[in-house]
Amino acid sequence: MSNKYGLPEEDLRKIRARDIKCVYCHKAMQEYRHTKGTPNDKATIEHLNKDGPFYWNKSVKFDPSVVAICCGRCNKSRGKRDLLDWFKTKYCTNSAKAINEKTVAEEPVKEYIRMQRNLEIFSINQLSSQLKQIIENSKWIFAKTMPDTPHYYVVKDNLSEDDKKMFNGFEWFIKKNGYDGEFYSKKYKYFNIGNYKYWVIGNILNRAKLNL
Ligand SMILES: [Zn+2]
């Protein structure tokens, strides 16, 4: 027996035993096995990461650390948001009892957040050695057509396969960790390393000297 996500009944039982109350707001929930729609206090399956896998079968091992049960109301409110982004919404901050990383269930939610942080630290460390390589070894081209805004760039297409991967990783990293800035009245995410700020436009990595 399994549910519609392909979750084995046995695993589902363990999750139900663990998440007796909503993992976010701690309210009591009901099963509503035969009710259509999603009542606010319905126990719903929640994927902590919104990337899935959403369906499990023999080839995809079920991972209970990314599946939880939360109430229909929290589930609807979170939607597809990243967990930490959702905590910033009015639904979470205005709740009678605020919903945030300190108030959610230890297992699996706090554990999940910690795991994500560790993953990020891991990938930043991995990234940094390769990044150093691309920053030091790339031939940075001066953008001659925009002398008023002096900056340099490298084009992804000209990089080695490994450095292309690094480019993608760095682009992702800037998106997640960078700060907002404008370049010719368009908004981009910037990230500072050493004396330079870095930003990506399409397949181009740009850098400009910081006014220190
Ligand atoms: Zn809830």
Q: What can be said about this structure in brief?
A:
The chain is of the alpha+beta class and 212 residues long.
Characterize the structure shown:
The protein is 35% helix and 19% strand. The chain is an alpha+beta fold and 212 residues long. The protein folds into two domains: 110 residues, no CATH class; 89 residues, no CATH class. A six-stranded antiparallel beta sheet has the order 3-4-8-7-6-5. The protein has a two-stranded antiparallel sheet with strand order 1-2. β7 and β8 form a beta hairpin. The longest helix is centred in the middle third of the chain and has 32 residues. The chain is elongated. The structure holds zinc ion (ZN). Zinc ion binds next to β2 and α2.
